[in-house]
Amino acid sequence: MINLASNELKYLTGVGPKRAEMLNKELSILTFEDLLYYFPYKYIDRSKFYTIRELQSDTAYIQLKGKITRFETIGTGPSQRLTASFTDGTGTIELVWFKGVRFVLDQYKVNTEYIVFGKPSLFNGHINIAHPEIEKISDSAGKGKIVLQGFYNTTEKMKSNFLNSKAVQKIIFNLISSLQERVPETLPGYLVKQFKLLPLHEALVNIHFPSSAAQLSKARQRLKFEELFYIQLSLLRTVKLRNQQTAGFRFAHVGDHFNQFYKQFLSFELTNAQKKVIREIRADVGSGKQMNRLLQGDVGSGKTLVALMVMLLAIDNGFQACIMAPTEILATQHYETISAFLSGMNLNVGLLTGSTKKKDRVQLHEQLQSGELHILIGTHALLEDNVQFSNLGLVVIDEQHRFGVAQRAKLWTKNDQAPHILVMTATPIPRTLAMTIYGDLEVSVIDELPPGRKPIQTYHYYENKRNSVYRFIRKEIEEGRQIYIVYPLIEESEKLDFQNLTEGFNQVKEAFPEYRISMVHGKLKPAEKDEAMRKFASGDTQIMVATTVIEVGVNVPNASVMIIESAQRFGLSQLHQLRGRVGRGADQSYCVLLTPFELGKDTKKRMETMTRTNDGFEIAEADLKMRGPGDIEGTQQSGLPFNLRIADLAHDSQMLQFARNVANDLLDHDPLLQHPEHLILTKQLQKKQKEAVDWKKIS
Ligand code: ADP
Ligand code: MG
């Protein structure tokens, strides 16, 4: 049987070492298989012919049928160009070439019928097509009818070496025609039959050379299914093996600490969402399986409190618990909140960060090992080897996306037996992403805010309204509140951004001479940053001018206004995170988005979404649809188990759910994939894992 993955492209007729090298360098295409899986990014309907009379400059790719009436070369040397008049009887347009003049003149003749294909544009009041594709009528007839023509992404370098979309297509055509046998199937035959999928061979042929729109759609469905299915199979197999191989600590009973806290020290009623989530977690930690759970909930939805109650459950069952947070500020904040909650109870809580003094550190280590310390809160410092627990039963990780999977894994090994893991994130993750990136975790969602919170009111203003925004700021400060003003600081233009920030700071200082102002940005030393934060948190300063360093975790309930300067430069999820810094107290809070007047369509949509809703999930979905999964924080390709070539997490949620169900059913019947028909699955999983590893090494 042919092994497409081990045949290198340079051995394909018509490719040769030079083109092979270019395909490899520019597109990482090395083998027959790589090329077969390099799919078109769009298709153009070539069954329709336009007439020149109906052309407009903004028409997309079109094709015309007609004759060239004359050629004209203009200029000499590198700036030479060639024009041709082309007519179809309804009018005349110009075709233009800036390169390959000799080739074109050799190839095409006047007064011969051609099909011309390209994108019209307006130049000097006339419509022209630059570098059109041209085919003889007889050629196109001979090839059978191409209805939908695929277009392949190529790089500038490839194009200038005549390796454009059409050339790539031709190489793929050669490859497919030269295959002596069908491409071997990569799914069990019974699945292909049961779900009426196209066999792999047909799917690959039709994705490159669709015989009809319906066949193209079937090909896409089959290939998408396969991608999503293998990701889900891999994730769910991990879950099943973990459940089989690793026993979990059983938190069998609800004891004194949990009950005492709930009855005596909790001054408010839990929300229904909190109760539901605690029930889910209790079922998990009581089952004898090891819990791996993602807890999602918007800022302020009360995740920390849920985590605290689960920690009490761990303590009641004779275990220690820890919380790991991504920054020192956050860890300290957790420490303070939790210590305050537990102040009436006889429990020991410790804080361990990079700046914990040696003496305190040694003491913490001792108390941890003796079991005297019940709860340890900290940063990455918790991962150090000399941090040894006596009996760690539960690990809570806050703000997941800042921690890598490897770091998570390191905490796993702090015990002989893996502790329960609760990952908390305030970045709402669309369901499809959660199912893929965290597909090996169970998911709990707190979808309700504690009562009495007033939804944050969000407004979008143009920058010329800054003075009225300032008047509003003054009014709020006079009523005793505090204000954030945030500037973008994005790495590419760091210098310029920094200048904007300092100018902004001076402008604010001038506008509010009677108030005290803090400034925080990434260039401050940690101690300076902490000092500035502390001053704002304690109410010493009324205004905080900052970059996005304040995005995560800072909790100043008295701050009621968030002004975001140059809001057009932030992504939706980031805007939502920033907005979450206010609305944490009882006061009505506001978020003001300032932008220039001229805005693109996408930006307008972002501003509209922000002013319309406070729902983090809705915003995350919108963000995913607008930007695609690759750009969302923490969800770069490396967050996916395997590369996606065709499936699209923003739009294929139904297919994803379907693929997950199929994988789940299959594993229920054959958890170890031992059935002869399932050998192909193990083989494919191994292959994909290897590719995924290689891929990461390259990037
Ligand atoms: P998160 O970690 O999800 O951002 P927190 O647990 O920090 O949220 O809770 C935000 C604030 O709301 C805290 O001051 C917390 O004490 C309070 N809180 C949590 N749950 C409730 C509740 N059910 N009712 C009232 N206040 C609550
Ligand atoms: Mg929190």
UniProtKB/TrEMBL annotation:
CDD domains in alphabetical order: DEXHc_RecG, RecG_wedge_OBF, SF2_C_RecG
Cited SMART domains: DEXDc, HELICc
This protein's record includes keyword DNA repair: yes
Keywords assigned: ATP-binding, DNA damage, DNA recombination, DNA repair, DNA-binding, Helicase, Hydrolase, Isomerase, Nucleotide-binding
Reaction equation(s) it catalyzes: Couples ATP hydrolysis with the unwinding of duplex DNA by translocating in the 3'-5' direction; ATP + H2O = ADP + phosphate + H(+)
Molecular function via GO: 3'-5' DNA helicase activity; ATP binding; ATP hydrolysis activity; DNA binding
Recorded family membership: Belongs to the helicase family. RecG subfamily.
Function: Plays a critical role in recombination and DNA repair. Helps process Holliday junction intermediates to mature products by catalyzing branch migration. Has replication fork regression activity, unwinds stalled or blocked replication forks to make a HJ that can be resolved. Has a DNA unwinding activity characteristic of a DNA helicase with 3'-5' polarity.
Protein name, as recorded: ATP-dependent DNA helicase RecG
Organism: Paludibacter jiangxiensis
